[in-house]
Amino acid sequence: MTSVILLGHAPFLQALELLFSGPGYSQTYRNTWMGWYSAGGYIMDSAGVMLSGRDGKMPAYDTAGLVGVRFEDTAGGFIEFELEGRFRDKPLLSIVKECMGADRENDGSAVWRSGHCEVGKASSTFGIPRPSRKLVIGYAGVREEPLNWVLFKIQESSARRELPFAFGTQNSTNPGFAGRVYIYGVQYAVERAGIWQSVSRPCQVDAEGCVTSHNFPRFYGTQEHCSIEIEKSLAGPLNVTDFTTESNHDVLTVNGKAYSGSVGPDGITPTETIVWRSDHSVSNRGWRLCPPALARTESSGKQQANLAHGGLQVFLPVIPFAMMCLACYCGPTIQHSWRRWHAHRVRFRNDLDQDG
């Protein structure tokens, strides 16, 4: 099952913004970690790169207005939720604070049993058994221990697990996965660039309308697969701004030709679906494909030229008709004025002759 962003009838592309990254087994990012509930707490260098192994939250967790939230792991599993109306365009920090307030201890009350808030509904998922239909914040179910609850409930409970597969639990970031886990915010990006007809996950679209490998400019994951459908009528030479993959193993295929290593399909006009695959081992920085720079300008110019040409075609047949109307309406007046001027000229000459 592949999650696809359909663009054919949508005015906007959607972009993913990394909000949080950390090991699933970490005891730092439990349900009581202050970073979930207050601004700051991220560690970045002067270039905006996360330090300490890229663990922790990004500034976008505090500030980015969202239309959806996506939870995923490095095994390829993910679930994405579309935010409900009153939570849309808010940062995840604001949503968590609004739902949880100062409540951090499960007292077995109804609000803990059902969850403090249902903030979104599942829109796509892959690789997660029993995915939750709703994104629930602050959930304990039937448990009554003060700290036995989850911050983000993304999977239904099972008989084999005391807690559901979740983010922000009593003892760790995510008890159901030992590898790295991520939280992404889904944002509206830019007006749809016509060349991209659809982009499947985990590839993503950035704020400038360029398609990138997952997690770019950070390392992409292993065993990834995505496809990029092309609007052939608008296709043009690709602008590859970045390309670094594992040679001969992590491959981007354009027009049937495989690109890997440091050589990408720059200047190539795609005529069929672009396919990306990474293998099970080494990862790298990835790639970024931008649509033809002049595609919009040329299209706009052609439209303006067509409008001008069409307007001229409409205007030309009107000219003779307008001249006829002008002659009919103004002709008598012009003729009368000319006669008066001519008579005055004749009298003036006669007066000169008499004086002479």
UniProtKB/TrEMBL annotation:
Residues 1-15 form the signal peptide. It comes from the Eukaryota. This is Uncharacterized protein. InterPro entries: Sperma_CUB_dom_sf. Keywords: Signal. SUPFAM superfamilies: Spermadhesin, CUB domain (SSF49854). It comes from Symbiodinium pilosum (Dinoflagellate).
